Amino acid sequence: MHRSVIVRQVGPAALLLAGLVAAAIAVDAALHYAGLRWVGLYLGPVGTGILALSFLYSLRKRGMIAFGRPRQLLEFHETLGWLGSLLLLVHGGSHFNALLPWFALLAMVVVVASGITGAVLLRRALELVRAGAGEAPDGARLVLDAVTVDIMKKWRTVHMPLNAVFLTLAAIHIVTATLLRSW
Question: What's the domain count of the chain?
Answer without folding.
Answer: 1
